[in-house]
Amino acid sequence: ISMIIIGARERYDYELFYLEFKGTRAIIEKHTDFFNDLKNVEEVFVLGHSLADVDLQYFEELVKSTDQDATWIATYYSETDKNNHFDTLSSLGIRNISVVKIEEIL
Fold first, then answer.
1. 85: how many CB neighbours lie within 10 A of its CB?
2. What pairs with residue 97 in β-bridges?
3. For residue 75, what are the β-bridge partners?
4. Are 74 and 49 in contact, with CB atoms under 8 Å apart?
5. pLDDT tens figures, 20-78
């Protein structure tokens, strides 16, 4: 399920946001086969993703499912994004991280 929320100014917006994402664990469990097939992945590219808190369970599962020595390459737009992406990926236990402008990998 994809959803875009621009400003959660009203309570309804927040509740809709919460309801949309609270089933993260169930979605991961439903796609166990997908995650199990990632054990040989050596490079992970994260393109144009915000790495928001709501997505961290998915990223935690990706980290557990891929080779611990895999290289993670994330793209960024601003210097703030660059630092945040590096910090977020590091906090997930990822060791081999490159955070680059998308133009650098095209």
1. 21
2. 72
3. 100
4. yes
5. 555 778 888 888 998 898 888 888 888 888 888 878 888 899 999 998 999 998 889 88
pTM for this predicted structure: 0.75
Altogether, the residues listed in the chain come to a count of 106
Task: Kindly report the three-state secondary structure assignment for every residue of the chain.
Answer: CCCCCCCCCCHHHHHHHHHHHCCHHHHHHHCHHHHHCCCCCCEEEECCCCCCHHHHHHHHHHHHHCCCCCEEEEEECCHHHHHHHHHHHHHCCCCEEEEEEHHHCC
- Provide CB contacts within 8 A for 1, sequence distance 6+: 20
